[in-house]
């Protein structure tokens, strides 16, 4: 905690990430089905955990709240948080359920499909009584996705954490991170994702998610974004557009920031890396969405984070340091050309 100019105590720039952490198994060769793959690389993953590690790698301060199995994979994941300087005091271990696994099929273009093993996995069983509300209270931003809304008791736990963070004045950051195979149906996914939509102060979505949430309306239309997705409580909505870069929307302005041309190997974790870069800047300037110039600078940085991440396999292993990002961005504040495959 630190004092502001008026002598009042303010929250430190500490970002709390809530949700799932799991093991991704990624084929060592792209463009093959899971059945055809002969070898896999084991990598830590789970969108909220990716964001927490991404922020810490970039020099920020983050914590992760979630549940893993009391098994070798669960303790491996907890240790990964520890060695990456993420506060893992909010991690619980379940003795009766395993850590979630995901097998990721990589197409030749680096895009991916998922096969999940969660019946149920430990992350789905986090209870409200296991939440560390004191840890949440320390934060300035509370970041989350939608996967933790699929099953009880985690859904009720998520809502309890969300309401507490909102009451405590944290900025609420939402990345729906659509994973249709995990939901009972497409309608259930749409309803679940939208059920907490109006809580958020900051939302990051992909083109695919816009189409899904709006009933296949034009994901490139500013009118669709403002009329169908923007809401009165929202401060900033960002749309990632693959190779085209990203768009940003606030109540007063909107625009586009280009990205970077890279050789995409695996897009797993690229959107989470993007979010890490954006939240790092937001944590140090909670009014970032009011200054278009500074917002665009933050989005160039976020685009670079995502672009670097797609050049290696796996999510957490590919997340960049701040130094790597600054070296990657062209000197002289040139606007980059295209962002490769962030979703």
UniProtKB/TrEMBL annotation:
<dbReference type="InterPro" id="IPR011611">
    <property type="entry name" value="PfkB_dom"/>
</dbReference>
<keyword id="KW-0418">Kinase</keyword>
<dbReference type="GO" id="GO:0006000">
    <property type="term" value="P:fructose metabolic process"/>
</dbReference>
<dbReference type="InterPro" id="IPR002139">
    <property type="entry name" value="Ribo/fructo_kinase"/>
</dbReference>
<dbReference type="InterPro" id="IPR050306">
    <property type="entry name" value="PfkB_Carbo_kinase"/>
</dbReference>
<comment type="similarity">
    <text>Belongs to the carbohydrate kinase PfkB family.</text>
</comment>
<feature type="domain" description="Carbohydrate kinase PfkB">
    <location>
        <begin position="14"/>
        <end position="321"/>
    </location>
</feature>
<keyword id="KW-0808">Transferase</keyword>
<protein>
    <recommendedName>
        <fullName>fructokinase</fullName>
        <ecNumber>2.7.1.4</ecNumber>
    </recommendedName>
</protein>
<dbReference type="GO" id="GO:0005524">
    <property type="term" value="F:ATP binding"/>
</dbReference>
<comment type="pathway">
    <text>Glycan biosynthesis; starch biosynthesis.</text>
</comment>
<dbReference type="Pfam" id="PF00294">
    <property type="entry name" value="PfkB"/>
</dbReference>
<dbReference type="GO" id="GO:0005829">
    <property type="term" value="C:cytosol"/>
</dbReference>
<keyword id="KW-0119">Carbohydrate metabolism</keyword>
<keyword id="KW-0067">ATP-binding</keyword>
<dbReference type="GO" id="GO:0008865">
    <property type="term" value="F:fructokinase activity"/>
</dbReference>
<dbReference type="InterPro" id="IPR029056">
    <property type="entry name" value="Ribokinase-like"/>
</dbReference>
<dbReference type="InterPro" id="IPR002173">
    <property type="entry name" value="Carboh/pur_kinase_PfkB_CS"/>
</dbReference>
<keyword id="KW-0547">Nucleotide-binding</keyword>
